[in-house]
Amino acid sequence: MEFTIPWSSLFGGMLLGISASLLLLFNGKIAGISGIVSGLMKNESGDRGWRWLFVIGMVIGGVLGAKAFGAHIPTQYDTNLLLLLLGGLFVGIGTKIGNGCTSGHGICGIGRLSKRSIIATCVFMLVSGITVFVRLHLVG
């Protein structure tokens, strides 16, 4: 077995950390995606500009990154549309109950040594590991 450094993952993680730090430094805001998107859905117009720029930048950055690194972007899905929508609904409910998502808790919260974020991220990772195990070994 040979170990190689996953350079693209390392570079991507560095970009995430830098962008989250810059948003906190210059705007005083946490780079949690669920909080940013939910702020767009509220009727307050005071801070919508930076939120739109953040979301548009994520989409454009994802497309440019996929093209630059030759990643495959799926255009067809092998799942039921109702299950896909139901999954999205459950993710939204979970982020509301958990006061944030993995980006807010995992990247920003842990960086600020927030106990709540450390616990939330550990729970996210534990549940995702159990889900993968069940999906691969029990559901088939």
Structure write-up:
The chain is an all-alpha fold. The protein has one domain. The protein is 74% helix and 0% strand. It has 6 helices and no strands.
Q: Features of this protein?
A:
140 residues, mainly alpha, Sulf_transp_TsuA/YedE, transport
SSE layout and pairing:
Layout: H1 7-27, H2 33-41, H3 48-69, H4 81-97, H5 102-111, H6 115-139
Helix pairs in contact: 2-3, 5-6
> Which blocks of ≥5 consecutive residues have pLDDT under 50?
none
- Alpha carbon gap, first and last residue: 28 Å
Q: What structural class is derived from the secondary structure elements?
A: mainly alpha
What is the string of SSEs from the N terminus onward? HHHHHH
Give Rg in angstroms. 17 Å
Sheet with the most strands, sense and barrel status = none
The number of distinct structural domains comes to 1
Q: Kindly report the average pLDDT value.
A: 86
Number of helical stretches of at least 4 residues: 6
How many β-strand stretches?
Answer: 0
Shape: globular
Pfam families: Sulf_transp (PF04143)
Transmembrane segments: 6-28, 49-69, 81-98, 118-138
Family: Belongs to the TsuA/YedE (TC 9.B.102) family.
Protein name: Membrane protein
Nutshell version of this structure?
The chain is mostly helical and about 140 residues long. It has helices spanning about 5-25, 35-40, 50-70, 80-95, 100-110, 115-140.
